[in-house]
Fold:
Amino acid sequence: MGPFDSVGSCSSSSSSDPEKSTTSVKKSEIDGQLAGAGYKVRLSDLRQVAKKLEHLENAMMNATDDVSESLESSDTVHYNPTNMASWLDSMLSELTPLPSSDFPQTPDLFPDPFATATATATATATWPPMTQQLVPYAVVDEEEDSGIRLVHLLMTCAESVQIGDANLAGSLIREMQRMLTQVNTSCGIGKVAGYFVDALSCRLFSPQTAAVSPGTAESEILYHHFYEACPYLKFAHFTANQAILEAFAGHATVHVIDFSLMHGLQWPALIQALALRPGGPPLLRLTGIGPPSPDGRDALREIGLRLAELAWSANVPFAFRGSPPRGSTT
Structure:
């Protein structure tokens, strides 16, 4: 019987090995399925998770009404518990202290390398730029303070020049020239302040000579350049012309009196707008009042001729009359 016993024992042991291997294969397959579904838990740990669930249920049954209501009314919904054990620990900690001996902390069985790498890269990439950004903010604040101080110094310096206090004005100019090195003079307040400082310096330190007024032709050219560069006059003329168009809509004759004709730069836009009016342009009569020309020219007549040529080219009936101001000898 001995040999048979040995054979039987060998056969039984050999038959148990496939069962163990089959069980281990099933466990590994289940672990892989759990990991693929996003659950960071193994089959061997489910017993511990079940104990924690039972402990959580008992704790909720024995908890006070206030705690139970707060848990029931909580908006937290655990749709995808990727770490079931830690979630249960957090729930239990709200109800009762969790004994560490009964439920040891389950380690992260499937660490996410992408999350670790992202956290490390974020911590590495975020901290140095924050230290580097402190310097530009400090520079901007310093430039703003210098710009505000420049404005106050400019006003004080201009008042000193006006009252003839050359000593104070000179010291203020030197102070402003020093401050201009601390701000950006290519744009903004630094550029404007630089021009004003240069103008005040020329006014204060340049030799005083008799002012030579520019000629009429030069003054007209300068005024044209100013009109093209500055938007304020154009906007005022556009608003006035729009009011004229609305006031005389449907009328066959429009009579406009300009009490300060200057160079007549407002009226070309009105002539062009009247040329496009539905039903045809009306008759435009323009009476211009302006100062006499210093060199004796009939400047009003010249302006009227230029406007008449423009109106003729736009097929707008036009009549002009120039009138010097009352009391003029011209």
About this structure: Residues 7 and 13 are 10 Å apart (CA to CA).
